[in-house]
Amino acid sequence: MFKIAKAKWPELWQALAREGQLYLPALVDGKTDFAPWQKDTKVDLLTAVTAKSLKQLFFAQVEPLMHFQTSGKKVAVTPQELPAQPTIAFGVRACDLAGFTILDKVFLKEPVDTFYRARRENCTLIGLACGFPEETCFCQTFNIDAASPAGDIQTWLVWDNLYWESRTGKGQQLTAKLAALLTEATAEDAKLVQAQQTKIRETLSKLPLGRLRFSPELAKHEQEVFNSKVWEKLSATCLSCCGCTYVCPTCHCYDVRDYAGKDGAVERFRCWDSCMNGDFTKMAHGNPRKGQLERFRQRYMHKLVYFPEDYEGTFACVGCGRCLRICPVNLNIVKVAKELEVDLHV
Amino acid sequence: MLGEKVTVADKTAAPAPFEPKIVAFCCNWCSYAGADGAGTARKQYPANVKIIRVPCSCRVNPLFILRAFQRGADGVILCGCHPGDCHYMTGNYYTRRRLTLLMSMLNFMGVATERLRVEWVSASEGARFAEIMTSFVEQITALGANVKLRDLRCKK
Amino acid sequence: MCNCQDTLIPQIGVVTDVCRETADVKTYRVEKPGGGKLFEHLPGQCALLSVPGMGEAIFSITSSPTNKNYLEFSIKRCGSITTYLDDELEVGQEIAVRGPYGNHFPVEDKLRGKDVLFIAGGIGLAPMRSVINYMLDKRDQFGSIDIVYGARSREDFVRYQELTEIWPKQPKTKVHLTIDKPQEGWTGNVGFVPAFLKALQFTPDKTVLLCGPPIMIKLCLAALIEMGFKKNQVYTTLELKMKCGIGKCGRCNIGKKYVCKDGPVFTCDELDEMPDEY
Amino acid sequence: MQKIGVFVCWCGSNIATTVDVAQVVAAVKTIPNVAFAADYKYMCSEGGQELIHKAVQDYQLDRIVVCSCSPRMHEATFRNCAEQVGINPYLVEIANIREQCSWIIKDRAQATAKAIQLAKAAIAKVRFNTPLTPGESKVVKRALVIGGGIAGIQAALDIAEAGYKVDIVERQPAIGGRMAQLDKTFPTLDCSACILTPKMMDAANHPNIKLYTYSEVEAVSGFVGNFEVKIRQKARSVDAKRCTGCGICTEKCPSRKTSSEFELGLKTRGAIYIPFSQALPKVPVIDREHCLKFQTGKCGICSKVCPAECIDYTQQDEIITEHYGAIVAATGFDLLPLDKFGEYGYQDSPDVITSLEFERLTNATGPTEGHLVCPSTGKEPKSVIIVSCVGSRDTSGRGKTYCSKICCMYNAKQAMYIREKYPQIDVTVFYIDVRTPGKAFDEFYRRAVEEFNVHYIKGQVGKVLKDARGGLTVFASDLLSDKHLMLHADMVILATAVKPAAGARKLATMLTASMDNDDFFTEAHPKLRPVESPTAGIFLAGMCQGPKDIPETVSQAGAAAVKVVGLLAKDKLRTNPCVAHCQENICSGCLACEKVCPYGAITAETKTVINLAGVKEQRTVAVVNQTLCQGCGACTVACPAAAMDLKGFSNQEILAEVDALC
Amino acid sequence: MQKIAALMRQKAQELLSSGQVQQVAAWRKGQLAYDNAPAVFTSPEACADLVYDEFCPANLSKYLLAATKKKLKTAVFLKPCDTYGVNQLLKDNRVQREYVYAIGTPCQGMLDIKKIRAHGLKGITRITVSEGVVQVETVYGTQNLPQRDVLLDKCLQCKGNAYMIADTEIGEKLATPEPRGDAFAAVKRIEALPPEERFKFWQQELSKCIRCNACRDICPACSCEQCIFDNPAAPVAGKAFADPVEENMFHLIRAYHVAGRCVGCGECARVCPQGVKLGLLNLKFMKDINTFYGPYQAGSDATTPAPQVTFTQGDVEPSAAGQKGRS
Lengths: 346, 156, 278, 662, 327
Description:
B: alpha/beta, E: 3 domains, 6-stranded mixed β-sheet, 3-stranded antiparallel β-sheet, about 35% helix
């Protein structure tokens, strides 16, 4: 383990930025979100939950896929070059890191999504333990430890020192390049970090959702959950916006669209989509998910039932709590899971 | 051809001069007839202006105008009958309100509102039509290419 | 050469033949621009065709894998892309194609040596045709073949010539056609497929491949059960909104199954276990 | 696959001189779906049309783009040409490469480039064109004429003579209008009543003509071929069917203080009255405001004296609803009120009169039985001054900017018959210009000057004041001698500006017919369609369209009648297929479209629609009446969801053009 | 507020048990100190969960759309500002009056959890309001904040305590927050900037957008059966921006479409997960409409036609509107 004092952080950012495009939590307009680092960036390492998850780093909101050129009856396709720029994300919280493992299951499964993989492989992730978890946090529900965030490197912020520990080869390589800035941590330091870890876990348990558990039974009762009567009550007030899906670190629905330019030039791109959108499953002759209820149900079935069914009980949720914070009508996965559990007596 | 030769010579000497793309929406009854009048009277105006015929100025959806800018127009001009003279009686009154609000909003968003103009041209005002178009093209040429509302996808 | 070989990047194919089947169905033959097949597939699999600027749509491959020269797609005009294809696609037109996607009818194992009953309605023949021709080309690997096919009228049969002139002449192969309403000059059966099916009195030892409009599937299945068939003997193929073709974009799932990847071929007992949302 | 044929016209040298047509052809050939392209000297000629026909057959073309002159010129030609070879006429687009290209650009390269782009835009549009079929609507074989003056009477007679039913609605108790008030008419000086009365009789007695006098149009709905009109027949308080027109009631009426409208206030009448002696129908009417029976409940003399017992005090206004295929507006004119023209002393002296009042004063049936006397004294005047352009050609904002057209001639007429009947009276006319175009008009004016010694002074009257002796002092300028004049007169006649009759704008609104800023009805084309309103089925006759004299009025009325007859002769009408339509599954029923529709063509209907999720539901949607809609497109923009679109100018079509031009 | 909540529960239960209405739209208690959620109650028993406090900002009027579709007579609790939304929906024929039972509900201003968090407060466990002071308890300590400092922005533009539509009212009307100066002050500030800075401001604001459509979906003026942005046949269909121009267009067109319909409820800005200052666009249109065509307040009744569907012959010319602060 290494450490680096606050005074030297600007140098650290600079050094990291030399190794690749650096993203870190920045305070802009009173809101903290990941942003490319620049000299005047106001880095915010205290806010636990950034406005959006970092998924767009690997799963871009808009990803150009290919360019077509048509002329007469001829069609030529030029695939988009894969991104090759190394990137470094600093200050990623345990929940978001866990989110990547969930996205990996989808995008790295055969056939691999090469755009995702390229971005993923090009990136070194530096985790940061959550000094101040918030009332919307419930990562412990999924056995995610906010006190040991994981990543290629994981870090802790204790008072004015940042503690630094490589966890992967990629992490070690990067750490080696920063040798001049990092100093070896002492046993004393290790104790400080441990103490912080304990405190984080304690704080989490005191939070309103600190003891929340999602029942693994849900995934075992697909039909019963699907047919539960609570969907109607729960979905009645959903506005069908897709805010929750866009801030969610695990939601990964996408659309492939064409943009026709002039003279036969066509850009095909992928963009985020949401199962909450009315036209998501609409076909020329009907829509299997006719209404709000069906769309709402799909989203939560996917997170609470289908995904765990497919992936050994893993919920497609990491407890970051962003959906709790942004829903215009305060609907969220916690409320849904609780209602379902009550309804199904699980 | 002579014209082509000149263009080629220009290219080697200096970058081609900026030729703005101007879309003019003209109502069938007054302004389009006015444009025809300009032609009949052989009133010259720049070739940059391309006219789209609509039945009435009130057929022009602000979306069309935005789309024109998005697709690369440097200027858009909407022409209709003089207020009170609309073939459909009230069409241009609505146009006037719609475009007033659109102009004001574009201005509010810092988009050059000189790039959008609304003019009332009657069927008998052929000469005026040519004058308006000439001055508009001059104005847009002076402003240069529109970059603010342009969509740059497929721009290769 | 670009470094990107993502599965979302299509190949370019060229249309080498367009055949008008019915008022709203055409069959398109697609090859590599220099000739030859774009890719190999198994019966029941799908491919995504796209007209740049219009977007992609998924279609089942109608031709048999045993055909070594080209792929065929029988496409019915219904949405924006299919309408465009119907209106605009001509011989010589290049289009973007990617595939094959999805699972297939188990011609290599479970169907081997079985007596097979095909039940199709309308454009539902398209995926069946791939299997039928595959089986006919490997005739000795399969038992008897019965094809029950219904259409609204005589003019609505897809591949009428093949149905009446080629298939019935193959060994142990019977074609049973029916149309919805009586029509002048039609001497075959008149009536809907489920009723026709019952009248034909098949024995429940056959394996069934069923494809057609949802209501036909539902009624045929009921008829089959009544005739003593079991649901696990009945294969069908589904169609849902699909975009990526690789089980990622999140559209075509029924429960945990993605139709584009885990389907489109399911047995009816598999469908029973899935949520009722298709 | 669409197969578009592109035909580039040379228009002789009109296009080909500045546009390299061969290059245009070469350029469009590379565009997808263009199956054929060619140029030709005159596309509109028989040869050109044959070229199109042949290309359509040889290349199985299904859409046509013609690059030629303005669509306003030959769109119809090429549409017909397409229709002849089985292509829907609305699958034809015109690229205007003459008026908007070859004629406005001198540089050949520029003109050619622009022509190519215009062609591309037309091709882009035509791809999205859909075949359109004009609808049909039934024609009601009955016409309505609004206004019973000479214009209305003439129009009605001509329509009736052609064998169609026609109704006249007249606001006054009798037909006849302004012409009935005139004494003589220029330039023949024949008696107005003598020539008008027979026409009034013809109209009143014609089996095809029905008169609604003392009636007004209350509401108009519907459209060409089938207007529904509500007519308010005001209560006359006299049973018109039983009345014999004996007039005893009018003589015995004790209330005598009401000024006569017909006599322009120069005479009084009873509360029950017949407006003038030759009035038709000759049925009295009770002016309830001035009738003692109605005001006090006492009296009832008329009822007692009526031999036919046809006085009915309980009569109510009646609303009659009738359907018409065509409507003629012939609402005539009023004189401009002179309250803003204090300098002429009209309000101060009864001897300052309008020219129309003069007509009554010299009329044998008028208040003075034709003796020209000063209203103030009852004595014959010694000198009369006529002032022209009172309120006409006025740029001060008080009057009208237009020339009232008829004044110059009636000034001469009036001067002349004063001088003829009373040679001792001195007559002076002040004029700005004397305008006498017209058959025998200038001769007429010269006779006034030369034969009858009327003094014409080019100059303006600045002020008219009463003088101490009871006469009038007129201050004027003589422009030719640049002198200020101060003249004495016993009578001043003001040639007052005409203006459209009161209520014309209200009527125009009901008819959805357009009006100019002076409230004259606008014609569909100032030169080529001068008797039609731009609103289909509405025709114009007489002063309501603009100042004109009697012969012009009569000929316009006749022309309007022919147009009406032409319309009524059809059993069905083809309607413009470029109309709005609503995509009901997207329509939310907010009805913003309805509010901006000038034709009332959009209505709300509760319908069962299949919503976007494929589920049937009942809701309110906007429905466009395809016959009423004129295709302006205001509704399409009012609709935020783009559920409302316009056929022939659809969103897709216009955007395709935008994209092609940018 | 607790008293009002009790009255509301009582009213809801009465209405449901008497069968006067089939459902009640109100708020349900959440799991945190501030996350009351809009909810539809269908039985008197369920109403036990009904709450009302300073964290009920959502305008429930939009739920009347579904109620009308289902033909269910619905009682809806409406704060004074929410009533404008109902009128607008009635005017747009999206809601039928016969299915609405409007209950005027007093309000003293709603609190903004984002503003509370902006004071550095995390791990919030309890929030209490009394006498203008908001006490926030967190796992890290307790802090008191002046109530006015943490009111929602929309409450600082409060239109007052009058209900534009109400079949009945709960309790007495309360004093609503004093509006903060000129409602158009923020618009005027932008207007005063040089054009390039205005452009930069909007570029920056709008590029935050993630096209989640929350602004549209909560808006009582956005009630189309199918939004033009969702219509594949429309020229602007799209769900994700792929070019900076596209999100400009989205917001510009959306604001344009709701101009004259926007009741100024401020919900769009409140629900924006990215904090885009959306209200400014709508306010700009309102200001223009007021300036050019006379004062107009959408939603103050259900009948007055919107300014865009009317005109006068003397209307201002478009050039006049574009002239101010030309770029």
